[in-house]
Amino acid sequence: MAALAGPAAADDFADGKSDGDKVEISAGGSRRSVDVGAEEGTTSNGCNWTIYVGDDLTRPVYENRVDLVDDAAPIAVPNPAHGASRLFSQTGRWFQATGCNPQPGLDTLNGVYAEGDSISMAELRDEAINNVDPPNPTTFGTSPDDDGAGRFPVVQIPTWFWIEDPYWQTEWSAIATFPGPPGAVRVWAEAFADPDRTEWSAGDGSPWQECGGQGEVWQPGMPEDATTCSHTYTWPSVDEPGLAYQVQGRVWFRTWWTTNIAGQGAGPLPPISRETAVRQIRVGEIQAVES
Fold first, then answer.
1. What number of helices (H) and strands (E) belong to the chain?
2. How buried is 238 (Cβ within 10 angstroms: 0-12 exposed, 13-18 middle, 19+ buried)?
3. What pLDDT shows up at residue 67?
4. Model-level pTM?
5. Could you tell me which of 39, 153, 191, 230 has the fewest CB atoms within 10 Å of its CB?
6. In the beta sheet, which residues pair with residue 120?
7. What are the backbone angles phi and psi of residue 126, rounded to the nearest 5°?
8. Nearest 5 degrees, angle CA 257-CA 259-CA 261?
9. Strands (E), 26-139
10. What is the pLDDT of residues 42-98, one digit of tens each?
11. Has residue 29 got a pLDDT over 70?
12. Beta-strand (E) ranges in 202-282?
């Protein structure tokens, strides 16, 4: 029998047991493991070793001491009634150690061990979403635009804002894999992020304004009310630093994930956001001419 892999504290060790076709495991912060290639029916480390679960793809294993039905369609997670997350070992096998002799500093070595490395579905999902990293938008459009010369927005006339393409049409994703036998992937989770809505700071002290999407890209001949992403300035920017307002946009992304494990998810994740650089935009006014 292979030796135990890696040191662990006594409170990481919890019993596992089998009850008919149900399985329950309580796993601590550092799950116990045996080396790949462990053999059933052997004795080592003062313990008797037997296979507890032969294939965790077909017989689900969850952490936090939860009863599991031996079913090819696992219970969906997250679900408070079914523990924190599903567990997977490198080979799919989990060993049970029984009759262990006491070890110095440990209450018992009795319990359940993954064969090789192990991971939870929540860890795999989080690894995927943490690697979804859309860049900040490099620019945004306005109409009227401040061209740095004689053209700029004016008070009392709506100024449109929008995020430029192709940024808005891009989907970002990342995949996290858990390897099994050489050259194989046992479990994977993939996370996605799509632009969903925008917010705008007009720079004149007004609150951030939320828009339902990208913002309408202005085209010649479009009416002023053809967008929901606009702001009407009431005062020119002549008293601002640089004679301009500091305008900024923020993009919120809808995020979700999926996996190759049936019944495990796919589901929404918390939104993430990215911000544009601040642009200086001058706002002027049209002077009435008296005859």
1. 1, 20
2. exposed
3. 38
4. 0.76
5. 39
6. 87
7. -65, -35
8. 145
9. 33-34, 43-44, 47-53, 61-62, 68-69, 86-89, 94-98, 111-115, 118-120
10. 777 678 888 888 998 888 887 754 333 333 333 333 344 444 578 899 999 988 888
11. no
12. 209-211, 230-231, 245-259, 267-275, 279-281
